[in-house]
Design brief:
There is one protein chain. It is built from 6 helices and 11 strands. A hairpin with a 2-residue loop joins β7 (141-151) and β8. The longest helix is centred in the first third of the chain and has 15 residues, at 37-51. The chain is globular, with a radius of gyration of 22 Å. The protein has 251 residues and is an alpha/beta fold. It has a 9-stranded mixed β-sheet, with helices on both faces. A two-stranded antiparallel ribbon has the order 2-3. Bound molecules: adenosine monophosphate. The site of adenosine monophosphate has 22 residues, from α1, β4, α3, β6 and α4. Adenosine monophosphate binds at residues 6-8, 36, 38-39, 62-64, 94, 96, 99, 117-118, 120-121, 124, 126-130.
Length: 251
């Protein structure tokens, strides 16, 4: 059984995002980039399935600039077997629909039984690619997975939904997207990092698949979140009540 895992290179979750002057976007100069955390969970899940004998091959695919190869190498170090890099120009914003179309082409060529994506990329927070890919393929989808269990020709996906959990049985081939509680990804060991450098990595271009990646949306403006005003310490309950009445206007 083959598993395809799309992995995106995003600004590291520890980095404080800086907005470019004029609100024209995010400043990416000298910013630490990493694999999208939900994609690390997806790779980990694929590797655990393989370790239990449920998969024969894991293919990691990334769409992005030349440096996206580092992200693929991380996936290879965690345990993926080979990588596919679809190179896009530096600075190009590739929207979820274009990513889903490219992934569909990869699925058509690779014929995986399962595609495991992150539920969302932490840079654009779109939460669209997995659903769009399932739609384009006409495959069943199990999104926000907190548990994945393989069965004969099908996959049981436990999903985090409002107020509880829901378990779906999907006939494979299927699309699954990962939620935070699915697993805790391992840190790749040094030997595995070294070994990953020797694993095969194929490079393609969007044109090879006939997919137009030109944006369909125009970002009007990007702004920082408004900063919270500092709190004040009051000396008595009476003062607090007074402030709630006169300043906050909530009493
Ligand atoms: P999004 O819909 O942008 O929130 O992304 C959801 C998931 O789609 C991510 O967690 C990745 O698994 C996958 N994905 C999105 N963009 C890319 C990309 N450029 N390359 C590879 N996978 C991607």
């Amino acid at each position: 059984m083959k598993i395809l895992v799309p992995v995106k290179r995003v600004v590291d979750y520890n980095v404080k995002i800086r907005v470019k002057p004029g609100g024209t976007g995010i400043d990416l100069a000298n910013v630490k980039m990493s694999m999208n955390p939900f994609d690390e969970i997806a790779v980990e899940e694929a590797v655990r399935i393989k370790e239990k004998g449920g998969s024969s091959e894991i293919v990691a695919v990334s769409i992005g600039p030349a440096k996206a190869q580092e992200t693929i190498r991380t996936a290879l170090a965690i345990g993926a077997d080979r990588g596919i890099h679809i190179e896009t120009p530096d600075g190009a914003l590739v929207e979820p629909l274009a990513v889903a179309k490219l992934l569909k082409s990869v699925v058509d060529a690779e014929k995986p039984d399962l595609v495991i994506l992150g539920k969302q990329a932490i840079d654009d927070d779109c939460n669209q690619t997995g659903q769009m890919l399932a739609g384009l393929l006409g495959w069943p989808q199990g999104t926000f997975a907190s548990k994945v269990v393989l069965d004969e020709g099908s996959v049981h996906v436990t999903r985090e939904v409002d107020g509880g959990l829901e378990t779906l049985k999907l006939k494979m081939p299927a699309v699954v997207t990962t939620d935070l509680r699915l697993n805790e990804p391992r840190y790749p060991s040094l030997p595995n990092i070294m070994n990953a450098k020797k694993k095969p990595l194929e490079t393609k271009k969007p044109d090879d698949f006939g997919v137009d990646i030109a944006p369909r949306l125009k970002v009007q403006n990007t702004t920082e979140p408004t900063t919270r005003k500092a709190g004040v310490r009051v000396d008595s309950v009476a003062e607090l009540v007074e402030k709630l009445k006169t300043e906050a206007g909530v009493l």
